[in-house]
Write a structure and sequence with these properties.
Blueprint (H helix, E strand, L loop, with lengths): L1 H7 L4 H10 L1 H12 L6 H9 L9 H14 L8 H10 L8 H12 L2 H6 L1 H6 L1 H12 L6 H18 L15 H10 L7 H12 L3 H10 L1 H4 L3
Length: 228
């Protein structure tokens, strides 16, 4: 970790925010917000889609671009038909073909959250750890489950566009562990007893960058970090 810390110690939270703006997933969501016909469905659309963004058959960036382009063009999208339209979308998606039955069940489960969410959208943006907790309870998952944390991350990306302001992640929200983070951990960790979640918690605290923002720095600099 010391070597990784030395490489990353000059990064700040502002650097992380700038890197997030270049995240192709953020770019796709920005384009969606600019062009979607009914902006009132935008935040819940993004949140619910994030909950089924796993076991993809293509790259995540390609999937979110596909998602963005599809819903930009869709006419008459509203809160009543949103889940139905999402099911149509993933049923024909090039990049999200696996486990469709399970993902459709997840969409029906999150459908019960629409009304509460719509009434508290800004509150959830200002209190993203509460959103994480409620999503975990609703989906019957742990608070640090990858899909739950990822959904909060993508919601925050969308909320920046919707509310035109940036609210930082709470330090209590963990980083979603994926293959790239596993590779970095394997390369830089020398403590055989260290858990990967603890590794990133400690690094986050030392850098004074919330873990979910640290995620963007590692993703955007991954090719350089993996060479060290």
């Amino acid at each position: 970790m010391e070597k990784l810390y030395e490489i990353m110690k000059n990064y700040s939270i502002n650097d992380a925010i700038e890197q997030e703006k270049n995240d192709l997933q953020f770019v796709a969501l920005k384009e969606l917000f600019q062009n979607i016909k009914n902006k009132e469905v935008y935040l819940f659309l993004v949140l619910s889609n994030a909950l089924i963004t796993y076991q993809l058959s293509g790259k995540g960036e390609a999937y979110w671009k596909e998602f963005s382009e599809y819903f930009q063009k869709l006419e008459n999208l509203n809160l009543k038909n949103l889940i139905e339209e999402e099911i149509k979308f993933i049923s024909n998606s090039k990049n999200n073909k696996r486990l469709l039955d399970v993902k459709i069940l997840r969409l029906h489960k999150i459908e019960n959250f629409i009304n509460d969410f719509q009434e508290k959208k800004e509150f959830y943006y200002e209190n993203m750890e509460i959103l994480r907790n409620e999503l975990a309870n609703l989906m019957n998952q742990k608070k640090d489950a990858k899909t739950i944390v990822f959904a909060v991350k993508m919601f925050s990306y969308a909320a920046r566009n919707y509310f035109d302001k940036i609210i930082l992640f709470s330090s209590s929200i963990e980083i979603p562990i994926d293959s790239r983070l596993e590779n970095i951990f394997a390369l830089y960790n020398i403590d055989k007893d260290m858990k990967i979640s603890d590794f990133y918690k400690i690094l986050s605290k030392r850098l004074d960058i919330p873990a979910l923002h640290l995620d963007a720095l590692i993703w955007c600099n991954y090719n350089e970090l993996i060479k060290k």
